[in-house]
Amino acid sequence: MKLTCKHRLIKFFLAAALFYFPISAISADDFTAYRREQSQGVQQIKKDFLVYKEKQDREFANFLKGQWSEFQTSQGKVRLKEPEPKEAPVAPAKTTPGTPPVVAPPVVIAPVTPPPLPPQPKPVTVASNELELVFYGNTVKVPFDPKWKSYRLTGGAKPETMSDFWTVMSGSQYEQTIRTINAARQDLKLDDWGYVTLWRDVVRALQPERKSEQNLLLWFLLVKSGYDVRLGYYDANVYLFVAIKQPVYATKYTKVNNQTYYAALDEDHGNGILAFYSYKSDYPTKLNPLDIKSASTGFTKSVSAQRTLAFDYKGQSIKLNVTYDRRLIEYFASFPQIDFELYFDTDGSSLLHQGLLPQLKKFTSTMSEQEAADFLLSFVQHAFAYKTDIDQFGYQKCFFIEESIYFPYNDCKDRSVIYAWLVRELLGLKVVGLLYPGHMTTAVGLRQVAEGQATIMYQGKRYVIADPTYIGASVGMPMPSYAKLSPNRVVEIQ
Q1: Theoretical Cys-Cys bridge with 215: which of 2, 58, 107, 240, CB 3.0 to 4.6 Å?
Q2: φ, ψ for residue 265 (rounded to 5)?
Q3: 131 and 40 share one domain
């Protein structure tokens, strides 16, 4: 509501009076009248917004009655088309002329399988309109409208049903729930995926074992939270697809109005979805895709687990007892497979910062920059056993730092991620990832480049090749099969 000329004059003279005269000189009646008019203005704004919101919901519900078309799903995108090396190649040891090279195999201590996580307490309804759940160790109390819990999808999935559901939900008490979840997000410093996962835990608690009802609730609540999610159905099943800013791999997807939507919220990544019906119209206000450029690592109530890592460096046997966050492993398991930047740009847990980094720093702090980079390279090459994703899991996967500590094996992508993190944290040097056909490695921005070291130029800066998968190689030694190739892509690390 705009201020009238009279309102502006009152506001001006009241401000002038407060500045030039004692407060007691101002008429109490004038001030009370002014406050009343201002309050009425605020109330009118709230009323206008409510009318606008109801109009939006009514129009969208009408769209849902008849604007549905059939869409096909596409197979998940493939991140690496070329196979990775079945075994990590070993660099020949440096020898004196005339003597055969000696190959020193890595010394890997098999990881001890950590005990399973203690089960999270099941969600509890503490009141008829309040739910208490534990989100990766954090207790969150969530108010809800009781009708959300009692809703049942009857008569099958069809446009009229979706329209009626939207009408019911838009007339329910959802604003306080959204405010509560947003406040929890701020308190826990959740990334976009953590925020959506928290919502998913809420709807699962409200509608246990009812997948279609869960997806309906999650659809409404995420749209009202400003995220671009799209509902679909086929026969009696209700599906949910979400727009994500970054490319997603190994997950089925579809395109609606030139926007790509992924079945990333589905536990089987949409493998069971061939085709579905969805509405063609967009929601009346702009919705945002999820932005998963990095993952939060500081919000869990940590459950510590240990692994021993050992390697030899210049004749010295080094053994490290590494503590990591077992609960963070559980969170990472829910993540969709995103592009490489996500893994390079995600930090290690506080447990790794407090444990692994100080142990390595005892060695690097007395070394030159070149030797420290070599030392960390030797650690990653020799302390971990190599195995491809296909051999270990049967599918492509990229590890966060914590996952390389947890799983018994890692591959070239994972070694590149953890090496880049160590160099940045301990040496303060810039690192880039280099993607070749079937292989990932790194290059380090050393301040001094030694003669004979293999390098690459990127954005006007020279980087020295450092391959964590070429066992025994020092910084500057590329894997022979890639030495003369230019990378398909340089991954910039923040």
Answers
A1: 240
A2: -90, -5
A3: no
Q: What are the tens digits of pLDDT across the range 269-295? A: 999 899 999 998 888 889 999 999 999
Q: Please, what is the angle between helix 356-364 and helix 412-427, to 10°?
A: 70
Neighbour-count burial of 481, counting CB atoms closer than 10 A to its CB (0-12 exposed, 13-18 middle, 19+ buried)? middle
* One domain for residues 242 and 313: no
Q: What is the DSSP string of 46-106?
A: HHHHHHHHHHHHHHHHHHHTT-EEEEE-BPPBPS--SPPPSS--BPPPP--TTS-------
Residues 6+ apart with CB under 8 A from 135: 184, 188, 197, 198, 201
Domain span including residue 30 = 5-63
98 within domain boundaries: no
Same domain, 384 and 273: no
Helix (H, G, I), strand (E, B) or coil at 338: strand
pTM: 0.86
Number of domains the chain is built from: 3
Copy the structure tokens of residue 149. Answer: 């819990």
Exposed (0-12), middle (13-18) or buried (19+): which is 72, by Cβ within 10 Å?
Answer: exposed
Please give the pLDDT value at position 55: 85
